[in-house]
């Protein structure tokens, strides 16, 4: 961890926004602490901020290519549309899953060819389909008969992927199947209606649910996808040739490797060598690329003691980055750091008060509540969890805060989410 280049950090100009390092944030608490200390020293402010480690994003792309070399990733923009993250993914050769004209526009503006975009929102407004046709986004998903007429009218030349409901969504934290995906008995009528409308079905897509730890879900979904390929053949449609395995991947290495291995063997099980030769396999990972790259640094801005209970206000909350983050994950990702007395001058020499909800040095803990900054009582991010005694101007650092966090923030009560992001780029030479 001493490979981190302190000199280059200390020589930074006062307008600090880009830090070149040769270490990565990851789980290295010492490095996280150093970076935050440096930022606080150079830019004293009590505002919450993000640190985005672009080196981690490149590492993840390497991991993806190593484990799923035959699967082209289309990063799901909704997960986190931070411009530097998107630009890094462009540089790494990613394609993109967009769900709205404004997402499509932001990706085209980065110089990405419309051929590298999938419009993966199964139900779209007519005007949005028309927009996709105008800008040349020609790969679109659908899962209902109602969508066929709109597409026939506004984008008849596009290629369609029929989105099917994944048969097994158990083991995921964010199921999608109650809203998306054709049921098995709907597939044949949908294919026939598409054919009657003169539209071209290129293949099948599914999503096993967000943050999935049930790798067999990919197997059963691929089996269901194969059944759709067979149904199309039975209907004498032109052979399907695109397989879109959606998202749901987590970046924790053993989980990702297990999911990738299941995908690989299942594709080989259900599609013969000859079929695989003409098969294009794509995926729509969101969380995989975004989650670990962002670290959120918040400040304790208020404290109240009620008997044994400790209550704290931090300057980020439900309406900022934490609407879709599970409290258990928040607690497991949290580090508390002590600031210098006036909070503006970096952090203290031995600043770690807490890691993952546990006091360091064995200090006593208290049942604690963490509130966000707005005037809604539901703006509460932890409740009844054991935390050590914390004080105003301590920092609470949350790791792995890149997936469905700032992307979901609202401006309720005039707060929004952390506005500043410090970027770590990497010099591995
Ligand atoms: C949200 C979404 C994704 C990304 O899912 P992750 O679980 O974050 O990988 C992919 N495809 C579609 C259609 C989605 O709606």
Explain what you see.
Keywords: Lyase, Pyridoxal phosphate. Pathway: Amine and polyamine biosynthesis; putrescine biosynthesis via L-ornithine pathway; putrescine from L-ornithine: step 1/1. Belongs to the Orn/Lys/Arg decarboxylase class-II family. It is an enzyme of class 4 (lyase). One of its GO terms (cellular component) is cytoplasm. The protein has 429 residues and is of the alpha/beta class. The chain has two domains: 22-53 and 292-426, Lyase, Ornithine Decarboxylase, Chain A, domain 1 (Beta Barrel), CATH 2.40.37; 81-285, Alanine racemase (TIM Barrel). The chain has 14 helices and 21 strands. It has helices spanning 6-10, 29-42, 54-67, 83-91, 101-108, 126-135, 145-154, 184-196, 216-234, 253-270, 273-277, 287-290, 318-322, 327-332; strands at residues 18-21, 49-53, 71-76, 95-98, 117-119, 139-142, 159-163, 172-174, 200-205, 210-212, 242-244, 280-283, 294-306, 309-314, 334-339, 347-355, 358-359, 365-371, 380-388, 395-398, 420-426. The strands form three sheets. Strands 1, 2, 13, 14, 15, 16, 17, 18, 19, 20 and 21 form an eleven-stranded mixed sheet that branches. Strand 4 (95-98), helix 5 and strand 5 form a beta-alpha-beta unit. Helix 3 packs across helix 4, helix 8 (184-196) crosses helix 9 and helix 9 runs parallel beside helix 10. The longest helix has 19 residues, at 216-234. The two termini are 15 Å apart. Mean pLDDT is 91; it is low at 1-15. Pyridoxal-5'-phosphate binds at residues 76, 78-79, 97, 120, 207, 210, 246-249, 284-288.
């Amino acid at each position: 961890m001493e490979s981190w280049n302190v000199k280059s950090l200390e020589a930074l100009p006062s307008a600090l926004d880009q830090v070149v390092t040769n270490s990565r944030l990851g789980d290295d608490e010492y490095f996280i602490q150093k970076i935050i200390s440096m930022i606080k020293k150079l830019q004293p402010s009590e505002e919450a901020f993000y640190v985005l480690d672009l080196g981690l994003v490149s590492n993840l792309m390497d991991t993806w290519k190593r484990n799923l070399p035959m699967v082209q990733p289309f990063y799901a923009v909704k997960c986190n549309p931070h411009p530097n993250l998107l630009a890094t993914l462009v540089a790494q050769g990613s394609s993109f899953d967009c769900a709205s004209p404004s997402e499509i526009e932001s990706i085209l503006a980065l110089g990405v060819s419309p051929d590298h975009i999938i419009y993966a929102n199964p139900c779209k407004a007519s005007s949005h389909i028309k927009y996709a046709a105008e800008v040349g986004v020609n790969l679109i998903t659908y899962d209902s008969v109602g969508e066929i007429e709109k597409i026939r009218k506004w984008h008849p030349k596009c290629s369609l992927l029929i989105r099917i409901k994944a048969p097994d969504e158990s083991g995921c934290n964010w199921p999608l199947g109650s809203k998306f995906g054709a049921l098995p008995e709907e597939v044949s009528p949908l294919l026939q209606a598409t054919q009657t409308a003169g539209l071209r079905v290129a293949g099948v897509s599914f999503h096993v649910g967000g943050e999935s730890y049930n790798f067999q879900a990919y197997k059963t979904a691929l089996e269901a996808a194969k059944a759709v390929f067979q149904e199309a053949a039975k209907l004498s449609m032109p052979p399907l040739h695109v397989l879109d395995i959606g998202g749901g991947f987590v970046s924790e290495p053993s989980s990702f490797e297990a999911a990738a291995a299941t995908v690989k063997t299942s594709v080989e099980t259900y599609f013969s060598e000859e079929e695989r030769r003409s098969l294009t396999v794509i995926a729509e990972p969101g969380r995989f690329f975004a989650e670990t790259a962002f670290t959120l640094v918040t400040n304790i801005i208020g404290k109240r003691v009620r008997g044994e209970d400790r209550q704290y206000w931090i300057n980020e909350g439900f309406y900022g980055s934490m609407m879709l983050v599970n409290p258990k994950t928040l607690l497991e990702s949290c580090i508390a750091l002590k600031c210098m007395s006036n909070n503006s001058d970096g952090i203290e020499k031995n600043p770690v008060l807490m890691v993952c909800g546990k006091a360091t040095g064995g200090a006593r803990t208290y049942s604690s509540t963490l509130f966000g900054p707005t005037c809604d009582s539901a703006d509460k991010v932890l409740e009844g969890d054991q935390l050590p005694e914390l004080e105003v101007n301590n920092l609470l650092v949350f790791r792995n805060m890149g997936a469905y966090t700032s992307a979901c923030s609202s401006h309720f009560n005039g707060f929004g989410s952390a506005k500043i992001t410090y970027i770590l780029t990497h010099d591995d030479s």
